[in-house]
Predict the 3D structure of the following.
Amino acid sequence: MLKGKSYSLQTQLIYLWKNHRPVIWMLCIFFLLLLFFTFSRVRNSDNTRSRIITVERLVERGTFAHVAPGDSTPFRLSIDAVMINGKMYSSKPPVYPMLMAAESFLLKAVTGWDFYAHRKDFIRFLTIVNQVIPYMIVLILALAMASWYFPERRTLVFLLLFMTVASLPYAYSVTINNHSIAATSFFMVFYLVWLILYQKKRSSIYYVLTGLLAGLGASTDLPGLVFALMALGALYLTDVKKASLAALFVFAFLALSAAVYWKITGSIKPIYLQGALYHYPGSYWEQREAFDLLKENKLRYLFHITFGHHGLFSLTPVLLLALWSLLRTLIKRDWEIRPMWLAFAAGSFIIFLFVLFRTNNYGGYAVGMRWFLLFMPLLLFASAPLIRLLAQRKWGIFLLIFAILWSLPAVAEALYYEAFYRSWLDRLWLAF
């Protein structure tokens, strides 16, 4: 830890620029790489299109309905949809499409573009604003926070590599999806809670931002509510009034989601928990294919989401090193923010169990387990202490490089094609 200083993001970034300029240049290269893959092609497959159609309908018609009597979108319809009273709606959480619709209204006001005619421009704009830039903010915060505790350059370089070319959240950033925005939101929440608890930053703005980001994360990826509640619990340990203000923002987002669900379905339950709505004439869910037909026992499912064809550790073994580092931190108690890591570990385990027992199709066609993106950036950040230890030994450096190289193919596929694509390991497994 850098002793004798009061932490601020600005001074920490200045420190990085003065002492670790190559790391900053690497960060710039990885940003340009995301921009290159964002502009190289427009990624708008079923999973993404379900959200994009909602945005287009809100912007052009002021409705959530993809199809209604006398009206329909010019986009090809997505399978991620439900039918209610002759109207078709996205089954995805509504807050993220509403946010993108607001941004698209602004872009349309400035440019005069109609959404469908300029769909590629709108999708690229939304991807950069909501996916690419937030993940770059995560990387900046990760480096600033890591350098406070682990100022060695090798540690920062390998940590950056772990969180970019070896990281599925980085690769998912060029495809619009709710898992990425939730993952980046909760990384920022972790950082803000750290500022409040350990750097004694008690201004109301930190509490408000925590509430906003936790609410956004929970409303776009419901299992993230576990992290949101844990963050609020930590804030209540410091200042009840300001923590209550943060809680107000969290539940405002959840209330907004519930209001949209009520308006569309007559129930506040998320659409994906109302299974009957998926069954209507012509629905994909009446004639499911591939992963959606699977009925595997949970032991087999557990294997494949950890070490099998969608495995956390088989596709991106950097996560195995990160888990090792997290467990080492919890056991050795050698990092002052151990209580935060303990809460994170508990929350991640709850999310893992939720996915294990509530799903059966591996998230469909996707590179890796997309539902686990929620905790991946923070888990990768937890690898910093182990990276510092391994980077001091030749065999350790070899192990770090090996893990990065093994993780690279899955990341490259998600960047080049898109995140909702069968990974190399998935295809290899299918061949046998």
